[in-house]
Amino acid sequence: MDKNFLNQNLIKIAKQLSALLEKTEHLHTLMIKEQNKNRANGRTDVLKGWVFAEEVKEILGVSTATIYRYTREGLLPASKFGSRLIFRIDDIMQIIDRNYRRFESTDFDENEIEIEEDDDEDPYFDDGLALI
Question: What is the pTM of this model?
Fold first, then answer.
């Protein structure tokens, strides 16, 4: 191939990429201005207080299948948009609150719980369980 031909094409590609980057930066600036305008007018994000299944999975530390099972069994209310589920953060917090209790060491099978290893000694914890 001709070296000159390759250089010319590389220059064209670089110019197109530069133009695309400028357009992207312009759109980003417009989005930020619109968000700021909405905040100034008292409007907030439409989905404020709502999260998708991926975020619920992280919050609760369970699998996607468990999220869908909880929803199917009526334990976790959700709205469905196409194939995606969306959840109220308040509903997730209610589940956490409903399941909150003081556990005794006899409540756990040694292989049942996941204990995070920590190199630092903490006088209030023994084997990952609170001594309160």
Answer: 0.46
What DSSP line would sit under 40-100, residue for residue?
Answer: HTT---TTTTEEEHHHHHHHHT--HHHHHHHHHTTSS--EEETTEEEEEHHHHHHHHHHT-
pLDDT, tens digit (0-9, with 9 covering 90-100), for 46-85: 678 888 898 899 888 899 999 999 999 998 999 987 888 8
Q: Where are the domains of the chain?
A: 1-44, 45-100
Q: CA 94 → CA 66, 81, 99, 108, 118, distances in Å? A: 17, 23, 9, 23, 29
- Give domain 45-100's CATH number out of 1.10.287.3510, 1.10.10.200, 1.10.10.10, 1.25.40.10: 1.10.10.10
